[in-house]
Amino acid sequence: MAIKVQIPTPMREQTGGKAEVEVAGGTVKAALDDLLRQFPGVGPKLFDNGKLRPYVNVFVNDEDIRYLDEMDTKLTDGQTVALIPAVAGG
Questions:
Q1: Which of 27, 33, 36, 76 has its CA 20 to 30 A from that of 47?
Q2: What is the C-alpha separation between 84 and 30, in angstroms, rounded?
């Protein structure tokens, strides 16, 4: 099952400059596990003690996983997972 993951600019150094990568997985968790298997350097940017960092938003086809089934959100072939770091400022 091919899932596309959109990589934000601050994390592209860990993916060799790639803005999008293909992973496998039937859920968001499985897809992110495969992303970390392929690009281990992304792990510390996404997770802290096994939990998704609070400033990282994850979207599946433009829907925030917080309003779906979170990390258990089901994925199907061809879907896109976007990793969006929260932006703060003042």
A1: 76
A2: 18
CB 69 within 8 A of CB 42: no
pTM over 0.90: yes
Domain total in the chain: 1
Q: Is residue 64 part of a domain?
A: yes
Angle at 51 between CA 59 and CA 28, to 5 degrees: 35
- For residues 45 and 58, the answer to whether their CB atoms sit within 8 Å is no
Encoding tokens for residue 5? 């993951």
Nearest Cα residue to 45 out of 13, 72, 20, 74: 13
